[in-house]
Design brief:
Layout: E1 3-8, E2 18-21, E3 26-31, E4 38-42, E5 46-51, E6 56-63, E7 65-70, E8 76-81, E9 84-98, E10 101-115, E11 118-123, E12 126-130, E13 139-140, E14 153-160, H1 161-170, E15 175-178, H2 181-184, E16 187-193, H3 197-208, E17 212-215, E18 219-222
Parallel strand pairs: 1-3, 6-8, 15-18
Antiparallel strand pairs: 2-5, 3-4, 4-7, 5-6, 7-9, 8-9, 9-10, 10-11, 10-12, 12-13, 14-16, 17-18
GO molecular function: sigma factor antagonist activity
Organism: Pseudomonas putida (strain DOT-T1E)
Protein name: Anti-FecI sigma factor, FecR
Amino acid sequence: MPTEIIIVIQSLEQSTQQYDAPSAEQSAQLLLPAPQRFRQDLDSASAMNVDLRGRTRQLHLVQGQVHMEVVLDGRAMDVEVGNARIQVYGTRLQIARHAGRDELVVFSGKAMVTQGGEQRMVSAGERVTFDDTRIAPVRKADLKTADSWRNGRLKATDMPLRQVLERLAGYQGQRLWMMDEHVAHRRVSGDFNLDRPDQSLQSLAAAQQLQLLGVLGHWLVVR
């Protein structure tokens, strides 16, 4: 699995900045001061802004995904994700930013997603996706596979091909460009090794009869 960086925040003054898992080979775990009573695991190439000074603990997921364990300490916690706001109620949850949509998965407790005039309460064992304009209906989550990235795996069950390719490309530090939108919506299932994303991509491309082309080191073109 990717090398993990441990970031220990000693004081609230430190907790008003952005924390990153900077590369495709690194993830980050934030250890907060004891009174804060929550922990964050950032996936590789993820970034989170943290401000713990006020009566409401404010977080902003800039990119990537984060797994959080939060214990109530008398203060509210809000997570900003694009134009949406997630209110956290003493819970274990995961938030991910994907191309064109974001996702919340709740493992225990509850969380509320607010987007414009819409709201969705998400309970343990549920997930919801949302974008800049709307929140989709709440659905049942597969909790056995949702956080498999923390163990160096991507376990996909009936997942859009674009999403799988995007995740694997991200572990190589690449952005995805699919030339055929129809192909992008194919549904795939599999257990992919995130420690060897290139090998996983090649195997998936062969199975789906696709061609992969790296461009300038930053783009992965799929045709």
